[in-house]
Structures are given as structure tokens and as C-alpha cells.
């Protein structure tokens, strides 16, 4: 099995594909711990994988946004490379003893499946999604969860600012922050994970732009700049300290805990990024994954 790839991630990465790949990895590498930490609106599991026994606690996630599903596929390829290396490479095994990785590859399974598979079977959800999308069956630009709430605008870090200035004032394919912070089960699940996780840093993977956002309201520690410089060096991505954005998962982490938090925009182009970019994105960004563990 040495050198062989178990997962086929260079394809449309639905929630079903993710769950099958997770089960395959857990079976082959039983030191991976799997937990269902919550459910989506339509009852699909939100899976956390935990790897490592170290005191440093690192969290990573992907597919907060539905049409950014390629992040889940790329993350799972990173993960396979990592867990395979743990069994053969001493330097990687040191990471296992130094770091505990919390890994949530798909925060928004309903939204991902809407983009890739079209309307769900649930009658109420079908009707609502179709209405929000103004009758169109093209969901390629959908970022929200199945209820039309942007999950990365759901966190209590100056949420009121985003609520006031966002153009959608009702559920929409993108950008609507909801009627209040933390109304959606997916956002609540991730908030609960942060509250109990005591993470030293978080990395949230999105697309696109080849940029890394790392500051928030000057709450970020000095350590964050040291880490992001390593990310920048290994990936060629551009580190940007401040952007005019609030209410995001990373924003809340930095604001609430004062620890390093990073939003990494994988790839370049127009979302959803095509699978033809998969290998280039993977090669450029995998250094961020590994340095996120060792820094």
C-alpha cells in the first residue's frame, strides 16, 4: 500500500463522497478519531476528524460556502498524505505527538449537495431553495446553507455591522447573515466546537484569490504574523492583515480568544473553481496545511 493513493478526490465532492472517504480513511488508519459533532438543516452529519496526541491544538475547516466545495476535496487529500506519512516518516510522527488536529472538511453539506446535485428530495427545502434562487435550477453560485443563510456571516463579531450593510435583506444564495447571530445548526455546531476545543489556532479554507487573511480589529497576537509569513513563503499566497469584514468564523475566534486565526483563499478564478485547478491548488497550498501543524 506504500505510495498508493486510497482516495479519489479529483471529482465532484458531494457529502456522500466525503462520508465514504472518511469511512475509508478511518478503516485504514484507525488512529483517526471520527465524531459527528452536529447536523445540517437536512440532518446530514457534520464530521470532525481528530488526529494526534499533542498539547498544541489546531483546528481546520472547509466548505463553509457551498460553491467552494473543492476545499473539502483538497483538504481530504492533505489529510491522506499526512496520515500515510505518520506511518512511514519519523518527522511527521513528531507532529502527531506535538499536535492534535481537529479537522472538519465540510461545514455545509446541504449547500454543497445543492450546488453539485441540484434540489434536495425534501419538499419544503426544495420549494424554499427554488424560491430563493428565483426559480432557476442553476445553483452554481450558491454559497449559503439550504435556508439561504451565509454561514460565514453568522458569528457574533460585529455581526450588526454586516447585517446593516449586506444587500440581501432576506434569505439569498449568498451574503445574507440571518436574522440574528448563530441561528443555523451548522454555524452553531462550529461555535460549540470552538467553545469546547481550546484551540491554539484555526485555519478556515475558502476559495478564491490566493490570499491569507490573518488580522481582526488588532486582536490578533504577534505569533499570528510569524505563522502567516511561513504560510506565505511556502505557498506564494499573499498575506493580508486587515480587511473590512466582520461576523466570520475566524473573525469571532480572533476577537473572542485573541489567538491566531487564518482565512485562506485557495486558488484563483471564479467560484466554483474547476477541478482542472485541483493539482495546482493542492501543490501550492499543502505547505500551509503542514506548517499549520508544526509552527
From TrEMBL:
InterPro entries: ENP1_M14_CPD (IPR034274), Peptidase_M14 (IPR000834). Residues 11-293 form the Peptidase M14 domain. GO terms for molecular function: carboxypeptidase activity. Its EC number is 3.4.17.-. PROSITE patterns: PEPTIDASE_M14. Its cofactor is Zn(2+). Keywords: Carboxypeptidase, Hydrolase, Metalloprotease, Protease, Zinc. Belongs to the peptidase M14 family. This is M14 family metallocarboxypeptidase.
Amino acid at each position: 500500500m506504500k505510495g498508493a493513493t486510497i482516495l479519489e478526490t479529483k471529482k465532484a465532492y458531494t457529502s456522500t463522497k466525503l462520508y465514504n472517504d472518511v469511512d475509508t480513511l478511518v478503516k485504514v488508519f484507525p488512529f483517526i478519531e471520527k465524531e459527528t459533532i452536529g447536523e445540517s438543516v437536512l440532518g446530514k452529519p457534520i464530521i470532525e476528524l481528530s488526529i494526534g496526541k499533542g498539547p498544541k491544538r489546531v483546528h481546520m475547516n472547509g466548505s463553509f460556502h457551498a460553491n467552494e466545495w473543492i476545499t473539502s476535496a483538497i483538504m481530504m487529500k492533505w489529510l491522506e498524505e499526512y496520515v500515510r506519512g505518520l506511518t512511514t516518516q519519523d518527522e511527521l510522527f513528531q507532529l502527531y505527538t506535538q499536535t492534535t488536529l481537529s479537522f472538519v472538511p465540510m461545514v455545509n453539506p446541504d449547500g454543497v449537495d445543492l450546488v453539485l446535485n441540484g434540489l434536495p428530495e425534501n419538499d419544503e427545502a426544495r420549494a424554499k431553495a427554488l424560491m430563493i434562487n428565483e426559480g432557476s435550477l442553476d445553483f452554481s453560485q450558491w454559497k449559503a446553507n439550504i435556508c439561504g443563510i451565509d454561514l460565514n456571516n453568522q458569528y457574533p463579531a460585529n455581526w450588526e455591522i454586516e447585517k446593516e450593510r449586506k444587500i440581501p435583506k432576506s434569505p439569498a444564495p449568498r451574503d445574507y447573515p440571518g436574522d440574528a447571530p448563530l441561528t443555523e445548526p451548522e454555524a452553531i455546531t462550529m461555535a460549540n466546537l470552538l467553545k469546547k476545543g481550546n484551540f491554539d489556532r484555526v485555519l478556515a479554507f475558502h476559495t478564491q484569490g490566493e490570499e491569507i487573511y490573518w488580522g481582526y480589529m488588532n486582536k490578533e497576537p504577534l505569533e499570528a504574523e510569524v505563522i502567516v509569513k511561513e504560510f506565505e513563503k511556502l505557498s506564494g499566497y499573499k498575506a493580508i492583515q486587515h480587511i473590512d469584514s466582520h461576523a466570520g468564523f475566524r473573525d469571532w475566534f480572533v476577537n473572542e480568544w485573541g489567538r491566531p486565526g487564518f482565512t485562506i483563499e485557495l486558488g484563483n478564478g471564479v467560484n466554483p473553481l474547476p477541478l482542472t485547478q485541483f493539482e495546482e491548488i493542492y501543490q501550492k497550498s499543502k505547505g500551509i496545511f503542514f506548517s499549520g501543524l508544526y509552527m
